[in-house]
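Private note to self, pasted from the team thread so I don't lose it. Backbone tokens:
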């Protein structure tokens, strides 16, 4: 049987495909922009027939149809590897829960898990001439998930970019049980964040000054890393490489400015290596069938050993809060889950092990609450319930709009003094008083 015949034999409607899902099942729903759409709508129609369905996924780009009903929680639960704003809304309704894991471990977890998802489904690019359905910009862990599943369902979307990678970048038709041709909706694109804020620009400028020619870049999620990308695109830097978890607009700006060659990467030279992508439409347009790109699983890209093998690895990530001990919280605010552990710790550790590498954790010094009150992101200690994403022993450079400090190896009083020096001036005296109470304050003479 040739691939076309096999395709036609396995092609069914979305309604037909989801009939395999049974009460009590664990079901993988894709990842980020490959989250299913037509299959989700079809499953929503079966709500009254099903109970205790545990869905797995991450970084939801829009609200799934299965959660539109008020009584959705009696039938479905969302288990997320990394929260987006959509998942925060679901969590507020008691429908979504965070599954804590270091992102680099996720493919291995799917290989070893005692309760693998019985059904795995995701949006994919159209089948190629060799019978493969490409995972688009989300290689992540999907190949590993498919290997352990009893049933694999693909939802074909003609608009999914074909993202070049290795053997983990897609699934072969021989492994697929059902093929659904979806509604071919545009891949969810983020709106442009517009002009960078003065705070983002101030932080980004400090970081760019520490980036050498031939550096290998990792940028995290958010406006500030994209601002770094924009500044690099307009800088004199050259011969840069890319080895990153998320590929976003900032990298496209750098690449189109001719700054990226990858010529001096120790691994994957001349290729921009990434785990998943999310951004405006220009990201997906740039990735499509681009031979310069390398879509690879988290177990490779985020492995500390892989990161450390790249010389001059520059890691740039955001955080929510940091305390005077240097503990970095990047995924929760108190008990409220905001994002997830992701690969931040892997890149903080890997960058420091890299020859010439550096890691930067950044945040605005303050935020304003919904009542208009100003609060410091630099705290005496993290709020109750806040999760330590990067430990104080791992932190290297920390930056706000008020400066940058290297806290690696500093004693508690040195660290407190350094971190207070980049806090907003309105909060420094209060922080000093708290540090003194905690016994970690000793003002230096210089």
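Design output:
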């Amino acid at each position: 049987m040739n691939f076309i015949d096999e395709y036609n034999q396995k092609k069914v409607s979305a309604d037909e495909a989801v009939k395999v899902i049974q009460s009590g099942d664990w079901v993988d729903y894709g990842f980020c922009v490959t989250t299913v759409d037509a299959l989700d709508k079809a499953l929503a129609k079966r709500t009254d027939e099903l109970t205790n369905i545990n869905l797995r996924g991450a970084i939801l780009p829009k609200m799934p149809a299965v959660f539109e009903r008020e009584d959705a929680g009696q039938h479905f639960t969302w288990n997320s590897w990394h929260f987006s704003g959509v998942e925060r809304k679901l969590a507020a309704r008691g429908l979504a829960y965070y599954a804590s894991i270091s992102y680099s471990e996720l493919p291995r977890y799917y290989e070893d898990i005692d309760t693998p998802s019985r059904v795995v489904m995701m949006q994919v690019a159209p089948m190629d001439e060799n019978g493969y359905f490409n995972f688009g910009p989300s290689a992540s862990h999907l190949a590993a998930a498919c290997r352990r599943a009893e049933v694999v369902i693909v939802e074909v979307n003609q608009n999914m970019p074909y993202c070049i990678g290795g053997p983990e970048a897609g699934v072969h038709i021989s492994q697929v049980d059902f093929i659904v041709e979806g509604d071919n909706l545009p891949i969810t694109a983020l709106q442009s964040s517009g002009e960078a804020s003065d705070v983002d620009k101030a932080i980004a400028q400090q970081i760019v000054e520490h980036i050498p020619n031939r550096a290998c870049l990792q940028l995290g999620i958010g406006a500030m890393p994209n601002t770094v990308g924009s500044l690099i695109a307009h800088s004199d830097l050259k011969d840069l490489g890319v080895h990153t978890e998320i590929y976003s607009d900032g990298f496209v700006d750098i690449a189109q400015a001719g700054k990226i060659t990858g010529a001096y990467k120790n691994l994957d030279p001349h290729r921009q290596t990434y785990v998943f992508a999310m951004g405006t439409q220009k990201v997906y347009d740039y990735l499509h069938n681009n031979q310069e790109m390398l879509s690879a699983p988290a177990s490779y890209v985020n492995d500390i050993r892989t990161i450390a093998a790249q010389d001059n690895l520059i890691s740039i990530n955001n955080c929510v809060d940091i305390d005077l001990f240097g503990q970095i919280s990047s995924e929760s605010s108190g008990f409220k889950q905001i994002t997830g552990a992701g690969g931040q710790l892997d890149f903080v550790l890997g960058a420091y092990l890299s020859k010439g590498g550096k890691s930067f954790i950044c945040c605005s010094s303050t935020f304003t609450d919904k009542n208009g009150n100003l609060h410091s992101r630099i705290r005496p200690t993290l709020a109750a319930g806040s999760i330590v994403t990067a430990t104080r022993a791992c932190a290297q450079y920390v930056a706000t709009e008020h400066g940058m400090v290297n806290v690696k190896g500093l004693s508690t009083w040195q660290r407190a003094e350094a971190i207070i020096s980049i806090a907003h001036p309105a909060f420094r005296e209060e922080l000093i008083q708290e540090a003194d109470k905690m016994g970690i304050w000793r003002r230096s003479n210089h």
